[in-house]
Amino acid sequence: MAFGIKRGVRFQILSDGDLERIHWGTLHILEKVGVQVDSVACRKLLKDNGCEVDEKTRICRIPSHLVEEALVKKKASITLAARDPKYDAKLDMNHSYMTANGNGAVAVDFKTGKRRPSRKEDVVNSSKIIDYLPNIHIHWPMVSSTDQHPSVVHLHDLDASMNNTTKHVMYETGVTLSDAKNLTEIGYIAAGGEKEFKRRPIQSCLQCTYAPLQHDAGVMDASLYFAEHGVPLVFFGMPQPGATGPATLVGSLVVGNAEVLSALTMTQLHAPGSSVIYGMGNAPLDMRTTIRAGGSPEHAISSAMATELAHYYDMPSCVGVSATAKEPGDQAVMEYYTGCVGPLLAGADLMCGVGLLEDSSCLFYEEIVIDNEIVGAIARLIRGELANDETMALDIIEKVGVGKNFLAQKHTINHLKAGEHFMPELIDRRSFDAWSTSGSKSLVDRAKDKTKWILENHKVEPLDPATQKKVDAVIEKAKKPMWGGETKVA
Amino acid sequence: MADMVARLKDAVINYEMETIADLAKQALKEGVDPLVAIDKGLAEGIKNVGEKFGKGEIFLPELVMGAEAMKAALAVLEPAVPKGQHRASAGKVVIGTVQDDIHEIGKNLVATMLSSNGFEVVDLGVNVPAADFLKKADETKPNMVAMSALMTTTMPRMAEVITPLKKKNKAVKVLVGGAPVTDTYAKEIGADGYSGDASGAVDVAKKLVR
Questions:
Q1: Contact criterion met (CB < 8 Å) for B61 and A104
Q2: Prediction ipTM score
Q3: What is the pLDDT of residues A344-356, one digit of tens each?
Q4: B interface mutation test: which of A146, A322, A360 has the most B CBs within 10 A?
Q5: Global pTM?
């Protein structure tokens, strides 16, 4: 069976006219208001190509033809390759892929249940879980290795990730030029060389723009480096409707779109033909609690609309989902289901990501397992149905006739085996008696059992020792004092 | 005159951002004591708005609009305060988002909530280098320095401020916050307080500064 979620159902929110208006409005904003570009290299690049650049305010106004040209120049077919090629994610506009969520700083210890700063062992374990689960296709380092030297935390995150899953690894920690260089070097080593990596990029980087309408210096310097060195990029806008973007979801989409398109323009001016994925995750700021409303219907519909806009640009989308729940259970399920189903119905190519709570900051191992089940149900929902001889089964209906049943028909077992019916692993459909005699376990209990089983039984082939030695050397070389010669580890 | 003070208070409560400056000018013209106008008018008004927000009766934009109204009136009234006289204050706070981090909203919220609870707030903005925190702390002698970091990559910047700050002035309290920051981490880097949200930050600040 092909890797990824096959999709055949699609709903449409924005009309073609809506999309054109949003595109026009975005170009208008880029020309008239501009974006703040903190990177000196990027400002020079824009200025040399005819943008109006104010060195004092760092605002760059980008003429629309540059944006249109970038949309033509970008790489059209992107495959996020994996250490094991069976996990290659082809962004073919026909499959959806789920990613883990990333870069949290807190984990709830699986053994003790205690909340604590995340450690490298959490990255190791979550990577193993992601590797095992069939409905999560792309790995992210889910939390930070805060028990490691602060200057190389994120290199340890990547080290732990790529040694414990053979799926593609996307990180979101290439936020300075030196980070970009080290992360790229590690990627080249893991792939078996620069040429190999460029042919099959087994790692990629997601970069966040800053709403409204700003580009961080480190992030953009790193992005130019990644683009030039064959590391696929996602530019991820995340204005919060009502706070860092207009309250209207479409208004915030325009703000995010301006950020993504201007970042795309800079990378294509610097490295024409580089791989860029269109990213967006606009969750409103909850106006009562001041917490970002991840997993809200507005988050879901914004991600769905961003997907439509990405497809209007012939770009694959990478859109966001998260949850504000504090522990696995009813609220987390409701938020992740809502957050995933909207964008997936609209044809999201990549969805990031599952497994973290408290709006992408706290890892519970079992949440990854629960979200895997949610995605499984949605995958069935969006697969698409066909009415043909085989599915209409007129001959079988005729054969069975009135008042009998279809249980003993070969047609029945054949289609069950082909996956016609979703077979849940965590949803318990048994009778009350069967459920209560086996311990009256909740969905979360069952997820914990499965998590425990995965950690005890699932083995992942690490990198070979010679390759690992080279990775370790890069990390060692990158270590540097953080402030005043002192180094502190959480 | 008491009427003018009450009107200023109401103007904050009703978020009259565009017209409150004129009202403040009129109050001065009528001879209202600017300190009374601030303490009994504006401060009372923003306290009311802050309480309603704390109880979930109003939304965040209303709190922010109340703060904006207060700011507009302060710009008129503060220069009129005679030299040597001071506003009643719960304490002075220097606040900012650390270097390499330009996330603003959380920090602004804490600043707004602190001022609505009577603190005098010196806001350094975002992407503030450690040296600037230290310089401002030296100049303004605050009771507390508050720092925000929204990324795991910028969190360590907070320690960069705390170590030299505490070396120079043991009495100054440090409050830290931001999405990736935890209580444990705060303790580890030598901060006195931590809060996960703006309302909590006020409670912690009140405990630390008294």
A1: no
A2: 0.79
A3: 999 999 999 999 9
A4: A146
A5: 0.91
